[in-house]
Protein 1
Amino acid sequence: MNFDEKSGEIPYSTPWGKWQQTIDTVYVLVDVPRGTRGRDVRCDITASSLIVSVNGEVKISGKLFARVVVDDCVWTVEDGCLVRIALCKSSRTAGDCWRSLLVGQFEADLHTFNEMEKKLTLERFQRENPGFDFSKADLTGNYHAGGPQFKTS
């Protein structure tokens, strides 16, 4: 079981579904009509933009909050009622928490964003200290921008 599965998700709800993130990936979950198939979906991902349409209806369109690695991004239709998109972040540190999915659109409220930053900081601590389990830890203090930076010698 990975850190995200053990610690839970911090999603931000939108009119079309929700989005959430880890240090490496932004997940976009788009609710679609039951019976939707892959051929009904158009998902155009570039390094800096995302367009998702279902049966010709645009659900998401705009400039991404930050750049992604297009060759590592994937999307799939699950159970005929959900489009799951995995956007692989170009910059993968705990300090690179996306404030919104798109520039000026779907911006997480302050509480949700703080929880996202805490989770990414704990994920960073887990990677730096694999013998410990940070999945149920609580974090107070300096967790913004990836948390404290410790000197390594």
Protein 2
Amino acid sequence: MDKMPKMFPDRLITFTGADFEVAGESATSNSDLEEPEAEPEPGPSFDIENICHNGHVLANQYELVRTIFSYLPMRDLENCGKVTQLWNEVKSICMKERKRYDSVSFYWSGKCADVSYYSKYELFQSPHHRQLYEAMEKFSSEILIKPKIAIIFGSGDTDLSVRDSSPGLEPEDHMEKSWLVDKGGVLSKLPRDCLAIGTTSRGIVGTSGGISIEQENLFDENNMLCPAMSMLLIPEKPGVKILPFHLAENQLEPLIEEIKKDAFYLENDSVLQEKLLEKAVKGLQPEDKIRAVILLSNGLDLPFSMHLIQGAAARSKNKLAIGGAVGDLCWSSLKDTSMLALMRELFYFNYQSVPVAENSYMSTSGFVIAGENVQASSVLLPRKVRSEKRIIAELQKLKNSGISEDNSFAFMFACCGRGENHYRGKSGLEAATFNKMFPKTPLVGVFGNGEIGISHIPDFNAPTETSEKVNALKPGQFLHSFTTIFVMVSFGSW
């Protein structure tokens, strides 16, 4: 058989943006040292100029470049867009492909450990933390989307992490080294310009490899904990607004006073709530159609968050999905506060050993989703739902609504009293049932100390929205215990 011609030289070819260049000799291989290369047989000669010319031509073939770019992760795609004007234009086109607007979920868990395991390491510097950051870095480098916001659920137990066990001169003396997902560490691994909110609870919900997981951390010994983190990354599709907010309760009264200065007479609470909504949610315009509100709170009946919910409901005439839960150490990238500072605030709030501003810890982080073509629905599972059959019956209402599974994502906000114990030893039942009925929709969530939400199931098969008289939403209608609230949102195929 004739020897195959040598297609590439022992040289390095680089693309500078205008043309190809050939750099110095490549390193000699081991095989070259062992046996000298035989004399080349007659055949096609290698032409450097011809190869460079052909490479330049290929790099400027629109269809070829677009085909290659369509498979690239977002990080690589953005880097390629810096090479030439053509590549930048192709990058902009590829970023508008439908798959670039699919929300993606991330789930990581480590080996279960006793709280004493973390005492050997600096705060947030254990091997488990390093493993989490490595997994996040790999995940971020491979995703196809440019997320607008990340929602973070970290396992943890503040009864173990923040307690009056060893008081000293410094606030850190009250902090036990245990597993907590660190805000700063997580933010450093997110894609550039990605906003984020997060909370902590013993139990979290996530999706990994298309399979939903309920990690409740139920152990006979409370000192045991499985380190885990669940995350949802949501891109902002054209025509959609994702508007984050952070509501600190100690800012509510000053904000009301500011509103009263501009409006001498407030007719009723609904006028005040509308103005609070405008102040709290930056970028929200009067014409924006609010479809969903998601909240992570440090308290169940916080006045600021209740005002915001009622303001959003009034504006949308109660045609919106609402979902949220009470956790611990809720945070937002909008507020420049470290995890350690949040732990101090929690300690002071619980034990009041040092005078601090009233309600300094009580706050809510969340976001509003608005858009003409956004579909959002929520369904509430009451306490009496205690079997798979009943779960299916409730989620079937969501299925029957006709909500699209294209570019969709979902949240599960469950009471910490539900889960395995509520379903008589059957673990993961609610998340698994949702996963079976909506296999294309990533699900994340938390087992909290109270739930926020309503059942809102529109008929998306109807040609137009129905118009009917609605009553103002009262706190008792959206504050719950021993329930599970599913919220599903779809940006659709439009």
Protein 3
Amino acid sequence: STQSTGENMLSHLLQARPTDPTRECLEYLSIREHHAVPLQCGVQKYAWGKVGSSSAVAKWKESGDPDFILEPNSPYAELWIGTHPSLPSKVAVTGQLLQEYIKKFPDSLGEKHLSTFGPNIPYLFKILSIGKALSIQAHPDKALAAQLHARDPSNYPDPNHKPELVIALTDFLALCCFRPLSQISQFLSQVPEFAALVNYGSEENLIQQVEKASTNPSQESVILRKLFTKIMTCPTEQVHACARQLLARLSTSCQRTLEDQTFMQLMSEFPEDIGCFQVYVLNLVPLKAGEGLYLAANEPHAYLKGDAVEIMACSDNVVRAGLTPKFKDVRVLCDMLTYSTSSLNDSHFTVNQQGPVTNYRPPPHITDFRISRIHLVPNKSGWETSNVVLATSSAIILCVVGSASLEVNKDHVKHVMSVVAGRSYYFWLGTHLKFFEPMEECIVFLAEGNI
């Protein structure tokens, strides 16, 4: 079940570490023959990451890298797989940058990929292990990204857009996209401290405007923009006062909604931060293992807890405005958002219950990435094997749970290898992959360009 997968994920991680010289020799031969290119990936120690061995990121890194030393008191937030210059992956054994390997072997990508993206991996593939909330944020489209990068390259390190897709590995909680105005209006009537924040210092009754606009779709985006901007630019002393009052009331209440509980949790992580009130403005979305969310450019969101796979266009641009000690760009965030209450409708993915493969696809115009989840289960008819043909793009795979055998067929030359939790590989265009003989439950993610 997806629940058992989430609960037992860390216990499934194999602790085998690739120190066997025979294995390293086989990996080198695999690289030479282009069967499979084993990768060594870096980790980011952001403050919101889970600490030490409680972090799935640290466990995967330890399982796949013999030189990694786990620091028990350090946060391990993200594992990065790809060619982004901030933390590029390397070819294991040789130490060559994956980017340099691809430039040396552009045929691994194919003509269609090269004509679209050049000799580059157009996506960034990550594992997240969230100990406390990420910031209230959005990612720019290409036009805005170019402007922000030109104006402030230290905070916006590249000119690329950053649509993204997140898939839960354990129970996961996210804030994303605006709620319907009818729901926000209901919270304004039920949570007086939230209402006091919205109406503070205003000559116009914004609460009444929200209520009226909830039945008038033509006014939706205008009122949402006014509401969100008012909240995010409210004077600090008023934010602190309303936050303290709400926390005090909820602390003695016997009836708390999920939003109330989440507000209290955020207050413990970021005391009196304006971002805590976004639980009443943005959709609060719990995900089970295997469920996913697609987030387009200019959509507000924050991941709050859990472990997940994430894939995005190859960018590290983030516009932040709350729940973070990092640089905040409140005015840019307020100006860039779509202010739509329907964005969540078509962005939710569920697990395929009829077979081992679940495909997660962004809209067709997002060509940078797509990703598949391959879930192998021993002795379950039709779930013991899975075949994949890389017909349009190269691919990167990462095993996150268990182990299985993998037959790699490239140019009619076959090679059988093992995939185990914590290890990732790069495969050429035109490769046939057959996953089989899982010794236990095995989950592999396969990322590729959406072309």
